[in-house]
Amino acid sequence: MFPTVRMRRMRGNENLRRMVRENRLTIDDLIMPLFVCPGKNIKKEISSMPGNYHLSVDKLVEECKEIRDLGIPGVILFGIPASKSETGFDSWSDNGIIQKAIGAIKNEIQDLLIISDVCFCEYTSHGHCGVLKNGTVDNDATLINLAKQVVSHARAGVDMIAPSDMMDGRIGVIRDALDKSGFNQIPLMAYSVKYASAFYGPFREAADSTPQEGDRRGYQMDPPNSNEALREAELDMMEGADILMVKPALAYLDIIYRVKQEFSMPLAAYNVSGEFSMVKAAAAQGMINEEKVMMEILTSIKRAGADIILSYFAKDAAALLTKRET
Ligand code: PBG
Predict the structure, then answer these.
(1) Which domains does the chain have, with CATH numbers?
(2) What's the rounded mean pLDDT across residues 61-76?
(3) Measured at the alpha carbon of residue 283, what is the angle toward residues 61 and 302, in degrees to the nearest 5?
(4) At 37, is the secondary structure helix, strand, or coil?
(5) Bridge partners for 179 per DSSP
(6) Is 194 a catalytic residue?
(7) pTM, 2 dp
(8) Which atom belonging to ligand 1 lies closest to the Cα atom of 273?
């Protein structure tokens, strides 16, 4: 006890602190989300998410090279189709925006993991994550379209699939559809624990995917719930998910911790658009130090138990981590 024990002894010197540091963010942990749009030579900043862009396929390929050169292992792609429809059929067209993007990247870059977000909200005219019937999303009708969507992503050459729609039974249906089409080696990163969160605000502007009517509370999880997260995670594991995900990350660190303690599965966490834009906005006002807050947040997600972090900060964090090591 004090005065023999003094906790401050190990804090007084940076080299000592480095030696006893318990958690460390590395570039290997990061995945960068990207938005692809139709057209050519387009790189248009998303106003709600500074430093993030709507990229046409040619510019997307350039961006992916930069990300690969930073040492980031993977990107997750979101498609913004030329036109939206009631069912969102562009999402399963072999000539769809995502399919073109996957093909173009794969043609030029071999050493970057291409993950596709699988959902319908960016593709439907009503902005909901599936087939609308009587004002609600029809679960089982949506499963049929999900199977079509994943198989077309696989045909385009995707490396990993990340379903974010929150339909019941989707992981099993998707696994089965991929396996029957000869794609049993494509892993699934399931958005297992996805909350109906207001932190998705900037993304919905970026993807133009705000529901025209209603909200997503009928299929995404209720934020106050925690035991339910374990049930969702367990179901996805049983249905064949290879990686579980918790989303959002920052306001749900307790959920990340619980899921990691409970299941011996690789765990991803999505540091979502609102978490990113909040930091950017505060930093732009000179209220916080952007670099330090970014690293503190990403490290806290790691400390809570995430093995993988999807973040719009991935490029900035990777550049900073490289600078520190050299
Ligand atoms: C698609 C999807 C969303 C996000 C990822 N996939 C939006 C939503 O559910 O409304 C949000 C990502 C972010 O906010 O960064 N369903």
Answers:
(1) 23-325 (3.20.20.70)
(2) 98
(3) 65
(4) strand
(5) none
(6) yes
(7) 0.97
(8) 15
Q: Provide φ and ψ at 20, rounded to 5°.
A: -105, 10
pLDDT surpassing 80 at residue 325? no
Å from CA of 136 to ligand 1 middle: 18
CA distances from 317 to 68, 160, 161 (A): 14, 23, 24
Q: Decide: 93 and 131 in contact? Cβ < 8 Å.
A: no
Tens digits of residue pLDDT in 118-139: 999 999 999 999 999 988 999 9
Catalytic residue among 59, 84, 100, 247: 247
Residue 65 is among the residues annotated as catalytic for this protein? no
DSSP 263: -
Shortest-distance Cα residue to atom 7 of ligand 1: 200
Mean pLDDT in residue range 18-27: 97
- Is the pLDDT assigned to residue 63 strictly greater than 90? yes
Phi, psi (deg, nearest 5) at residue 244:
-95, 155
Atom index in ligand 1 nearest the CA of residue 164 equals: 16
DSSP annotation of 222: P
